[in-house]
UniProtKB/TrEMBL annotation:
<keyword id="KW-0067">ATP-binding</keyword>
<dbReference type="GO" id="GO:0015807">
    <property type="term" value="P:L-amino acid transport"/>
</dbReference>
<dbReference type="InterPro" id="IPR017780">
    <property type="entry name" value="ABC_transptr_urea_ATP-bd_UrtE"/>
</dbReference>
<dbReference type="GO" id="GO:0016887">
    <property type="term" value="F:ATP hydrolysis activity"/>
</dbReference>
<keyword id="KW-0029">Amino-acid transport</keyword>
<dbReference type="InterPro" id="IPR027417">
    <property type="entry name" value="P-loop_NTPase"/>
</dbReference>
<keyword id="KW-0813">Transport</keyword>
<dbReference type="Pfam" id="PF00005">
    <property type="entry name" value="ABC_tran"/>
</dbReference>
<feature type="domain" description="ABC transporter">
    <location>
        <begin position="16"/>
        <end position="251"/>
    </location>
</feature>
<comment type="similarity">
    <text>Belongs to the ABC transporter superfamily.</text>
</comment>
<keyword id="KW-0547">Nucleotide-binding</keyword>
<dbReference type="GO" id="GO:0015658">
    <property type="term" value="F:branched-chain amino acid transmembrane transporter activity"/>
</dbReference>
<dbReference type="InterPro" id="IPR003439">
    <property type="entry name" value="ABC_transporter-like_ATP-bd"/>
</dbReference>
<protein>
    <submittedName>
        <fullName>Urea ABC transporter, ATP-binding protein UrtE</fullName>
    </submittedName>
</protein>
<dbReference type="GO" id="GO:0005524">
    <property type="term" value="F:ATP binding"/>
</dbReference>
<dbReference type="InterPro" id="IPR003593">
    <property type="entry name" value="AAA+_ATPase"/>
</dbReference>
<dbReference type="InterPro" id="IPR052156">
    <property type="entry name" value="BCAA_Transport_ATP-bd_LivF"/>
</dbReference>
Length: 251
C-alpha cells in the first residue's frame, strides 16, 4: 500500500504573526510512529498570553512536548525570539528561555519547597539567588511552607511551586499545561492573579493549555483551538463573540 499523501499545512488567519515571541510554523509531530500533529501553526505574542484549547486527546500536550524538545518536530519550524530552536536539545531550549510546567506539576516530593527551588538554581550557574525571591514574591503562600516536603503540599500549593520553579530560570516563554486541573476554586483565583501579574512583568510570554475556558479567556490576548492534531480556529480574544469557543469545543 502506498503512503498517504501529506496534506499541505493550512495556517488559520490570526494564529501566528511575524513579531510573535514564539512562532510554531507548520509543525508535524507525534509519539514514535504515531502521528499526532499535522501542520500546526501558532504564535505567542510578546508579553502576552495565548491560550490553547481543545478537547481531550487532540494533541495539546504533544505540542507542548514538541516545543520544549521532548518530542521531535518531523516537519516545520519552531522559532523563539528570532532563533530557530527546532533542532536544539531540551536543555538548550531551556537556556534559550523556554520553561515548561507540565500536567502533573513535576516537583520532587521528598525535597522541601526551598530545596525544589534551589535544585533548579544550582543546576544553572547563570542564575542568582534573587530569582528565587522573585518567584516567591509571586506566591506568598509558599513562603510559609519553605521547609515542607513538596509531597505534603495540596494540589494548588504544588501547582504554585511548579510555576515558581519554572520562573527561577527567568524564562522568556512559560508553557503551562492545565494549571487548574484538580485544584480548588480559591487557589485557582490565586493562580489566575499570579499569571496576570506575570504578564504585566516585562519580558514574559505565556502559552497556556487550559480546559477551563473562562479562566483561559480572562487571561489571554490570543486564543487557538485544536481538533484532531490541527489548529481549527485562532485569533484575538478581544474580537471573540460570546460562546464562539464553547461552540467549537462542543464540536
Ligand atoms: N506516549 C504516547 N505514545 C503514543 N501516543 C500518545 C502518547 N501520549 C499521547 N498519545 C496520543 O497522542 C494523542 C494526543 O494526546 P495529547 O495528550 O497530546 O492530547 P491533549 O489534547 O493534551 O489531551 P489531554 O487534554 O487529555 O491531555 C492522543 O491520541 C494520545 O492517545
Amino acid at each position: 500500500m502506498s503512503a498517504p499523501a501529506i496534506a499541505p499545512a493550512t495556517v488559520v488567519d490570526g494564529a501566528v504573526r511575524d513579531d510573535d515571541l514564539l512562532r510554531i510554523e507548520a509543525v508535524d509531530g507525534g509519539h514514535g510512529s504515531t502521528a499526532v500533529l499535522f501542520g500546526v501553526s501558532l504564535g505567542v505574542p510578546r508579553n502576552g498570553l495565548c491560550c490553547l484549547m481543545g478537547r481531550n486527546g487532540v494533541g495539546k500536550s504533544t505540542l507542548m512536548s514538541t516545543i520544549v524538545g521532548l518530542l521531535r518536530a518531523r516537519r516545520g519550524r519552531i522559532v523563539l525570539d528570532g532563533e530557530d530552536v527546532t533542532k536544539l536539545k531540551p536543555y538548550e531550549r531551556a537556556r534559550a528561555g523556554i520553561a515548561f510546567v507540565p500536567q502533573g506539576r513535576d516537583c520532587f516530593p521528598q525535597l522541601t519547597v526551598m530545596e525544589n527551588l534551589r535544585v533548579v538554581q544550582e543546576a544553572r550557574r547563570d542564575l542568582d539567588r534573587g530569582a528565587i525571591d522573585e518567584a516567591l514574591d509571586l506566591f506568598p503562600r509558599l513562603r510559609g511552607l519553605l521547609d515542607r516536603p513538596a509531597g505534603f503540599l495540596s494540589g494548588g500549593q504544588m501547582q504554585q511551586l511548579a510555576i515558581a520553579r519554572a520562573l527561577v530560570t527567568r524564562p522568556k516563554l512559560l508553557l503551562l499545561d492545565e494549571p487548574t486541573e484538580g485544584i480548588q476554586p480559591s487557589i485557582i483565583l490565586e493562580i489566575e492573579d499570579a499569571i496576570a501579574q506575570l504578564k504585566r512583568s516585562a519580558g514574559l510570554s505565556i502559552l497556556l493549555v487550559e480546559q477551563y475556558v473562562d479562566f483561559a479567556l480572562r487571561l489571554a490576548e490570543r486564543y487557538a483551538v485544536m481538533d484532531a492534531g490541527r489548529v481549527i480556529d485562532a485569533g484575538e480574544t478581544a474580537a471573540l463573540e460570546d460562546g464562539h469557543v464553547r461552540r467549537l469545543l462542543a464540536v
